[in-house]
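Regression report. Comparing outputs from two consecutive submissions.

Submission 1:
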Amino acid sequence: MTALKFLFLEDSSTDLELIQRELKKGGVDYIPVHVQDRDEYLKAIEDEKPDFIFSDYSLPNFDGLSALSIAKEQCPTTPFIFVSGTYGEDAAIQTLTRGATDYVLKDRLVKLVPALRRAIREIEEHQALRRAEQEKFEIEEQLRQSQKVEAMGFLAGAMAHEINNPIMAIIDYAQLISKGELDPDKVQKISSKIKTEGERISIMVKDLLRFARHEKGNFEPVSVFALVSKVRSIAEQRMKMSRIELELHIDTALPSVLCKEGQILQVLLNLINNGIDALNQRYPEYNEDKRMIIQAKPEEIGGKSWIRITVEDQGSGIPQEIAKSIFNTFFTTKGADKGTGLGLSVSLGIVKEHGWFLSFESMPNEYTRFFLDLPAV
């Protein structure tokens, strides 16, 4: 293990020797760096990058509180321990409230090594906590991507069918033109249709790629109308193939929301896919009641402006006995080949990260409504 580097701010060589002797007696392995004034102290912090700082409280041309302030600015995570001979109760409280790690009186140096061990233990615990948080974040990211792949699988067949139609039309139009039997006006009309079909494909592909992109970007203002329009474009063909009627009730003048667009598209698509499954379960074939409703309207919550997006289906509903479990990771009522149980769990995690709220109400064999509440920008 590499020896720690200790920076000592001390003007008394005798006191410094006593401090270092106490550390040696405690079996502490370290590399000493000794300074006596402000200039030396600043240079040592910059050049030596100490692991610990030990400082006297009072020095002839410098003081410990100023040294502490500099340390908090230049190296805020470096533990700072006062070792002083003049140290009243008020001074002790002041140094701790300003961010000192600990303090030890010079006539009680026996407490120095325990204070150091305590500080090292706190550093190790903090590092372990940071590692655990990083691992948790990485697992959540993996779950989100796994769920996104699952959602993409639901869409793949429907999207392929939707893209295939305009491609076949383009091929047919191109064959007509290639025969050279059409007059210029007819060629112009067919060329316009080819352009229209190509743009239709482009829009679908762009929306799908936006959803599929692995997003770690910043929060940006996004139009609620644009969000719903994009997710509709992605899911529209699956609804058509399931013979589901979609109703949209969204004011184009709604304010924007601050979000990671790709992640919120994922949440909305999860809710829509669940609604499609519920409708197909209740109505395997066409039915005039087989419909989904998406609406967005302003709400006032706690005196602040919010927007509520509601995704409603008139499908099989959520039985009361499982209502408390639907947001649990890997919980699913679908077969193993139809779902992993990640959709709602991941969606809730994304919504919480945004500081929003996701809730629902349901009546078995009547309806299910999911509510996404988000603050307006």
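Submission 2:
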Amino acid sequence: MAAPAATSSPFDCVLLDLDDTLYPGSAGIGLATKRNIDEFLMARCGATAERAAALRVELFRSYGSSLAGLIALGYDVHPDEYHSYVHGRLPYDRIAEDPQLAGLLRSIPQRKVLFTNSDRAHMRRALQRLGVDEGCFDAVVCFETMNPHLFGEQAPCDCSGVDRSAVILKPSPDAIVAALRVAGTNPHRTLFLDDSERNIAAGKALGLRTALVGKRVRSKEADYALESIGSLRRAIPEIWGGIAVAGEQLDHGAEKGMRPDLSSIIQPTSVLA
């Protein structure tokens, strides 16, 4: 849970991605996930290994994920079936325990929300390997949080005309709005950490402060870049009320590009993770 807030910090909440953010991409989980997706596509679509790899890329580009693409194309694939195959066979032993990470997260004084596209089972296994208690976070936004309608529950937003089969994931604006609803904070005072430039760009478009993790250089839409989560305190001391290093200050002009109707969309609500 959050420690006493830093009164001089510009942030009220920190949204943190999981995969390739709280642990490094060098762990190889991302590559293993791609291989498992390819095998799933081979089995469900009757594709060759080469075609499955190409199809995975096509589905990601067109629909945001292979699961979203399969459902959109009419395949009868339940999320639990997909995640059980794709995530259930991952080499989790490659994720090393990180006591420093647990301490770092506990030291963050703001409200902390874990924001991942992954399903809850994968999230918990990854956190367990890292040695991070799920209770360290004030809330969790994962696949099930963003897609309750795929499990026969109420959609994440009360909007008429919502496609009941649509899969909501980052970088969709709907996914980020769902996270902000859970966070219950002003987007301008919310810091979003993610390893994906697409996700960072989507967050910036909705007015969030953004930090690209796993990179030496900022993308156009990132306010910060940090090589690893371990350098968070040095890269963004403002979290703890510190002073930014020259060249790493927040882009306070970014608020001008925020969607004018966002404040009416995002209201604190009780969304269960």
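Expected: both submissions complete independently.
Actual: both completed, but the second showed a warning that disappeared on reload.
Relevant detail on submission 2: The first strand starts at residue 13 and ends at 16.
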